[in-house]
Design goal:
mainly beta; four-stranded mixed sheet; disordered N terminus; disordered C terminus
Length: about 260
């Protein structure tokens, strides 16, 4: 994977791959279009203090996952010199609240729901990944993203698309139809012991803009719960919602900021 070239002015040729998480214990922060959420990285530390006293026996299973909060890093990425970026960290809650799930893990699967973006815009695409997420563990800091603290019965998931060397929508090879904006929507399922316990939609909006005198691609990301009905129940669990967070970045297409 390529490392950052350290220059916000360089408009290099498209990198071979835009979307791949770094290994959990990777020593370097790959910021040049290769730090997408839907890959290998989630956290870098085991749950603090080992298994909690309230950890359930293997026979028990969570009833759902919920977007507890989101934090947006797009404005920070543009300020740091990214030409495309960025997205969110989602803090996910494992339900029910009455049980401590620390020391267990959930595993994701992703599929494309819809997309108006060219297939060449990002590679291999935002809806790829099969990450494992330890519950109750902290997430390490990387680039513009600070360390996220360990929180009982929660885990963190990163949903970003970024490059320091190329603006996705301004690149003729990636965006041959010269679209001003496009949208990609993924479905994400979390499984516990092989059984899906929660489903969510992840929406990326790519749009042309300017920042600091440079053409940029602004990447707005939102994540929402998809309501499901537990077996034997007529009431959806974990209703529709996108959590709370810092909101969309303030940069807009055509807006020029210092």
């Amino acid at each position: 994977m390529l490392e950052s070239d350290g220059s916000i002015h360089a408009m290099s040729a498209p990198v071979a791959q835009d979307f791949a998480r770094l290994p959990v214990n990777g020593a370097h922060d790959n910021l040049d279009g290769n730090d997408d959420d839907e890959g290998l990285e989630s956290v870098n530390a085991p749950p603090q203090g080992g298994k909690a006293a309230g950890t359930p026996p293997p026979a028990l299973r969570p009833t759902g996952t919920h977007v507890d909060a989101t934090t947006d890093f797009t404005a920070d990425a543009l300020k740091a010199g990214f030409l495309s970026g960025m997205g969110i960290i989602a803090r996910m809650q494992v339900l029910p609240n009455s049980t401590a799930w620390d020391g267990k893990e959930v595993v994701e699967s992703l599929s494309q729901t819809s997309s108006s973006c060219p297939d060449t815009l990002t590679r291999p695409g935002p809806c790829n990944g099969h990450s494992h997420f330890p519950i109750g563990a902290q997430m390490r800091g990387r680039g513009v993203r600070p360390v996220q603290p360990a929180l009982s019965s929660h885990f963190y998931d990163v949903h970003t698309s970024q490059s320091e060397s190329v603006s996705f929508l301004h690149d003729a090879t990636r965006n041959p139809k010269n679209l001003s904006s496009c949208q990609s929507v993924c479905r994400q399922d979390y499984a516990f012991d092989g059984v899906v316990i929660g489903s969510h939609s992840i929406t990326r909006q790519f749009r042309k803009g300017t920042y600091g005198g440079h053409d940029v691609t602004i990447v707005d990301v939102t994540k929402a719960d998809i309501a499901t009905t537990p077996p034997g129940s007529t009431t959806p669990a974990g209703g529709q919602g996108s959590g709370s967070g810092s909101g969309s970045p303030s940069a807009t297409p055509g807006a020029k900021k210092p």
